Each structure stands twice: as C-alpha cells, then as structure tokens.
Amino acid sequence: MKKCLVSMCKKKGREIPIKVREGFFSFFAILLNAVLDFGKDIVRQLYRTWLSKYRFPPVGRYYPEQCTLVELFVLDNSFDKGDFNDRYYCDFGGFLTDEEKKPLVYLPTLSVRLKNLARIIKEIRSDKRIFIIQEELLKWNDYLYAWLYPFRYLCFYPKKVSWNGVDMTPLLRRAWWRHLFSSRSVEALLKYRFLKRLSEEKITVRLIVDWYENQDMDKAANLAYRHYFPNSMVIGYQGFDTQKYWLCAYPSEKEYTSGIVPPIVAVCGESLVEERKRFCRQLKIEVAPAFRNQGVWQESRSQEIPTKGCVMAVLPLETENAKEIIEIVKDTAVLLAGKNVRFFIKPHPAARMKSIYGEFLSPALEIIEGDIKQYWDHIDVVVGNTSSVLLEAVARGKPVIVIGNRRGITNNPIPEQLDEDIWRLVFTSGELAETVEYYLSLSFEVKKRFATIGEKIRAQYFAPVTRADVIKLLRLDQLCHLMPEKQCGTCQ
Fold first, then answer.
1. Is 435 helix (H, G, I), strand (E, B) or coil?
2. Distance CA 327, CA 85 (A)
3. What beta strand segments (E) does 315-355 contain?
4. Which helix (H) or strand (E) holds 209?
5. Could you give the angle at which helices 429-440 and 319-335 cross, rounded to 10 degrees?
6. What sign for the dihedral angle of Cα 78, 81, 82, 83?
7. 242-245 long-range contacts, Cβ below 8 Å, gap at least 24?
8. Is the per-residue pLDDT at 20 higher than 50?
9. What is the DSSP letter of 476?
10. What pLDDT sits at residue 354?
C-alpha cells in the first residue's frame, strides 16, 4: 500500500511522508496463518466426507423426474428438534402443495461448526426433504484437484500493472499472496466438481434456484450449470438487500460475458432492479417474493407498553466489525444506566457468539437468539451496520441508528434516497446514547410518520409473498405445457 501511495503522490508532484506500522515479518505471519487455515480446511473437508459417505450415508437416494434444484445454506441452528428451519426461502411461504414440493431437491452448503457437523448431517438424513450433500458424490481426485490449486495459481502471479499512471503492482501482489491459500477458492472448485458429478447421476433438472450472492462458490456453480445442465433454467435468487459497497452482489459486464452470472437474477423489490444493473446493463432482472422478510407485511401484535425502552443491536458476521459494535453499545449502556433502557444483542445466525465475543459481554447487554421475527413487537430502536435487518426495521417503521466504521468505509444498508429522520449515523458511544434518548422520546405523531415511511420502503424493497408469485418464481405455471392431456393441479 505504501509503495502505491508514494507512486500516486509522485504523480501529483507532492512528497508526503508515509509511515507503515506493519513490521517486516508481518507478511510472513499472514502467509503462515493462511497455510495453517488451509490445512484446517482440508481436515474439515475430510471429516465432512467421512460423515456424509460412511457415518451417515444416504439411504435409497431418489431423484424425482424434472426436479428443481434449490441451493441454500445450512447453519448450526437450521434444525430444531428434527424440524428444518429454512431461513432462506421460508418453505416458499407455505404456499406449495405436497405435490408441488415433490420435485424440490435441496443442495445445502454446510456453514456449520466442526462440533455440530455430525448432528446436522444426521438431521439432514432424517428430514423428509431431499437433500444432496456434495461430499456424497465427490471423488478423491476431485479433492486433489481443489487442494492443489495454489500450485496451478502460481502462473497467475501479477505482472507490472499501472492504473492512471500509478503503479498498482505492489498492492495487487500483496492481495495475490493473501488469497493464495484461500479456502473460498477450494470450496468453489469443489462446488464445480460436485455439480459435474451430479450431472453424471440419473437426474433430470427442470429448474435451478441458486441463492445468489455472486461470491466464489456462486461463480463456480453458475459456470458448472452452463457446462453440465445446459438445458435447465437457472435463476439467481437474491433474497436480500445489500449496502452499495458489497460489490460482489452487483455483477460486472466481464462476469456476464464470462458465463458465471445466472441468465436471470431475481431480486426482492422493485427499487433493486435498476440498482443491480449498476455495472452491467445487460442483466435480466425480475422481482420475486421477499421470503425472509414476509413478516413486514403482517400486522404487529398488540403488546403491553414496556417499562423500559428496548434497543436491539444487530451484529454482522464479520468479527472485527461486530466487536466494535458491541464495544460501543456496551459503553452506551453505561452512559444510559438508570434511564430505563434495555440493550439486546442479536448475533448473526452463523456467528460463534460465546467464543468470539465473550470478552466483550457485560451484564448490561442481553443476548437474544433464534428467529428475529419474534422480537420485532418488543423493540423500539435498532442499531448496527451492514445487516439488511436495518432496512427491514425501517420498513416496520422502527428508527434505525447506523454505527459508522472508524476503520474504513461504513457499510450502510439504508438507501441513499431515504433522507428522512427515521435513521441517523453515529460514530461514538456518546453520539449513540444521545440518539437513543432522542428516538425513545418520540411523540405519537412522529411515530405515525415513521410508520408511513415504513410503508413506502416496504413497497419498494420487499415484494409480498403470494402463491401466484411463488408459482411464477418456480415456473410451475409452465408445467401445464408439459401436461397437455390432463389438467395441471397448479392451475386449478
């Protein structure tokens, strides 16, 4: 970074002293940690394979005709006493009949801690849905192909590169070294090889619904879909909103022409259609139900007025960002002690709360777990950044406080065009305490105005979940053309 900044300053004809805190051996420490993490990932993949193939092997694997592949994540809390909690498609709103569910085949990505893997895979095997875990089909040469990728990657070592007359080579080379032993690259390669193996099975695929974040695995998956399922329709479902700096969610023209973008991208609100075309006007975008946020269209249950104002801090998955939020909220709770304010911490579902954030917890902060829907009627103010839950809070008429990032760019999920008083940006615990007090003292008239703002956001960013829209997303209406001699149950 220093070399790039020096080059930029020279181009501008200025000499600015730049100091670097990173020591000489810091780079080698980063590389060593990457290699160790790479080794841990190999062990984790071997354990998953043993569990999926040998400890809990599939029994009587069955592929329905003209099936629909549904890609999603399975987390530590995805199963509760044997029941699968689908937090990505929410069982498609409950609008599908048993007959319409039969062709659904789920492809789970296991984002599960090592200690919970055995339990989760056992639950998957017991579930009535059809799940295909990729380790069931992968062969040993697939793993070797993925694990040896760092050696193939050596030929892509960045050559000298300049941008607007500035030498960017040192920055690109440092990034190259950081990603040389990337676990995400390995998982992406394994995903590609898994889909190749799946195509070799006796399976006919009518439709593929990909939970589409345009990350490494999504790119590999969409390339594999084109290669091995060329006759299947592919829809990249983005059932979430993102802050504008999460650039991977916005496909580029180069990605589009490379064939790693799904032919159709489905977003969950009308205002997101043009936004997703920011870097590629050729994208075909359609609006689909906002399954995860269908609760914004439900009437709030009447609750007794709480004796304390309730503030919920929503944590992102990224560890350092989450720690900063907890630290600021903890200090704010001290500043507001004795003022009838309760602070709740809602961790990300995939986060390891006790092990990662334990040192920051305080008696003033209460941890809440489970589905966030059960807490909305009790919350007065929502705090955080990055998380799309903040936009959902605005859609419910709840005031939102965005905590600015003091280490870099603030990932603010609130739309730029929303300049209303329903949200504010803060950077310190003092500012947060002042803003919390302001929002907890709002008059009934202001709260009513916030509810009106919420209705507008709801209509723009959260498409309602209806049976007609679920049928459209899954292209079940097109099945009628495949059944000319009898009436299709979907259209009855």
1. helix
2. 31
3. 341-346
4. strand 205-211
5. 60
6. negative
7. 242/388, 242/413, 243/386, 243/411, 243/412, 243/413, 244/416, 245/409, 245/411
8. yes
9. G
10. 59
C-alpha–C-alpha distance, residues 173 and 161, integer Å: 10
454 vs 391: CA distance, rounded Å: 9
Q: What is the DSSP string of 56-91?
A: S--SS----TTEEEEEEEEETTSEETTEE--TTTGG
3-state secondary structure of 175: helix
Per-residue tokens: 390:
């903040």
Q: At what angle do helices 26-50 and 140-147 cross, to 10 degrees?
A: 170
Confidence label for 82 from pLDDT (cuts 50, 70 and 90): confident
Residues 359-386 have pLDDT tens digits of 556 677 888 877 777 888 889 999 998 8
Asked if residue 241 lies in contact with residue 460, where contact means CB atoms within 8 angstroms, the answer is no
Q: Is the pLDDT of residue 425 over 60?
A: yes
Distance (Å, whole) CA 171 – CA 1 = 6
Which of 5-19, 169-183, 276-290 is the least confident region? 5-19
Compute the C-alpha angle 308/314/320, nearest 5°.
130
| Nearest C-alpha neighbor of 348 from the set 321, 377, 374 | 321
**Entry field: residues in the chain:** 492
User: Looking at per-residue confidence, does 225 or 348 come out higher?
Assistant: 225
pLDDT of residue 304: 43
Per-residue confidence band for 302, with pLDDT thresholds at 50, 70 and 90: very low
Distance CA 346, CA 351 (A): 10
Q: Helix (H, G, I), strand (E, B), or coil: what is residue 356?
A: helix
**Measured between alpha carbons, how far is 19 from 6 in angstroms, rounded to an integer?**
11
Position 310 scores a pLDDT of 92
Q: Which amino acid is at 196?
A: K
Task: State the Cα–Cα distance between residues 395 and 376, nearest whole angstrom.
Answer: 12
Residues forming beta bridges with residue 233, ordered by sequence position: 207
Q: Which tens digits make up the pLDDT trace of 257-268?
A: 999 999 999 999
Q: Look up the pTM and report it.
A: 0.85
- Euclidean distance between CA atoms 317 and 322, whole angstroms: 7
Say how many C-beta atoms besides its own lie within 10 A of residue 13's C-beta.
Answer: 6
Q: Distance (Å, rounded) from C-alpha 405 to C-alpha 350?
A: 21
CA dist., res. 181 & res. 147, Å (int)? 9
Contact 136, 50 (CB under 8 A): no
- Over residues 306-331, the mean pLDDT reads 83
Residue that wins the pLDDT comparison between 447 and 308: 447
